[in-house]
Amino acid sequence: MLSNTSLAKQPEYDEIVRLTLPFLISLNQVASSVSLWKGPIRSDQGAGYISSVKGRGMEFDEVRPYMPGDDVRRMDWRVTARTGKAHTKLFREERERPILLGIDLREPMFFATRGVFKSVQACKLAALLAWKAHQNGDRVGGQIFGDTTHREIKPQNDKRAVLHFLTELVNLSDPSVISDQTHPQLQETNQGNALESVLIRLIRHSRPGSSIVLVSDFRQLDPSCEFHLMHLAKHCDVILMLIFDPMEIRLPTEGRFRFSDGQHDITVNTSDRLATENFEQMFRKHTDYIKTLALRFRMRFVMVSTVDDPVDVLQSSVATKYELV
Predict the structure, then answer these.
(1) Are 99 and 211 in contact, with CB atoms under 8 Å apart?
(2) Domain count, the chain
């Protein structure tokens, strides 16, 4: 049975193909019930985390005289040389950490056969995560990207930062906007692998101990992206959220189905079992590749269908059968 905090009501048409800012703002009411980051609570003030992510997650506090048992790697050699007595540096754990969300709004994300568009599901997840991070006192920012455009939001820790991020999600999740290269708020990217470009930017702007959540169908994930993911995972807590449509897992057994992007149509005959099996095998291979990367680089992996309730997914993210920790 779905919880009272789920989004399982029948969505309006606009919630299927695009989202409004009031709807994303309303997710603040249920965001407190979701959980994706592990680790004990430090206090009721600040972010309240004892860092369980990669990197020290520490900042300098003070210098005091050296005591037996202190880590020699934290010796303050300048103060030691100046005073003639051994001193060591003390660190305290950071009271907040940046949460960077990489949201894929490329053309293949504007698709679904059931539920909502992949792009809509990605935006709902992003909004829930942004509100949850804000409630925890973390700084929220990230990258929203299309095929040839992107929007970069610097991490900040106030409500205005979340609203700014949600506004960009709404603006860029409209297919007519994301494809408009003259839109004043969009920044053009070089032609090529948009996913790789975003990973490079995340490496530049993330700091050790950051949490990075990539929400995508991970098309164009190739060895060059693999290298950048490895670099990110060395110092950050990385979560890969794969958005998929149920038909990508299993096509209907028989029938002819017409798909359209509004300009072009294609008909798929699922009576051809060889073609159907090849299609399904391609998706399994794609999924297995991402799972393997997650295991190799110690990233977390969550699969989210276009028919899933995003609140339920995040509430059960630790136990879900789709996740690899």
Answers:
(1) yes
(2) 2
Taking only the tens place, the pLDDT of each residue in 99-133 is: 999 999 999 999 888 899 999 999 999 999 999 99
Token couple for 318: 């630790």
Residue type, 5: T
Q: Which of 5-14, 44-53, 80-89 tops mean pLDDT?
A: 80-89
Specify the pTM. 0.74
Same domain, residue pair 183 and 267: yes
* Nearest-angstrom CA–CA distance, 172 and 57: 32
Spatial CA neighbour of 105 closest among 151, 65, 68: 151
CATH code assigned at 258: 3.40.50.410
pLDDT exceeds 70 at position 242: yes
Tell how far CA 186 is from the center of its chain: 20
Strand ranges, E, within the chain: 58-65, 87-93, 98-104, 139-145, 149-156, 187-188, 211-216, 237-244, 256-260, 265-269, 300-305
Q: Letter for the amino acid at 226?
A: E
**Identity of residue 97:** R
Does residue 212 contact residue 206 with C-beta atoms inside 8 Å? yes
Query: 49 near 42, Cβ under 8 Å?
Result: yes
Asked if 285 and 174 sit in the same domain, the reply is yes
Distance CA 238, CA 53 (A): 9
Is residue 53 included in any domain, yes or no?
no
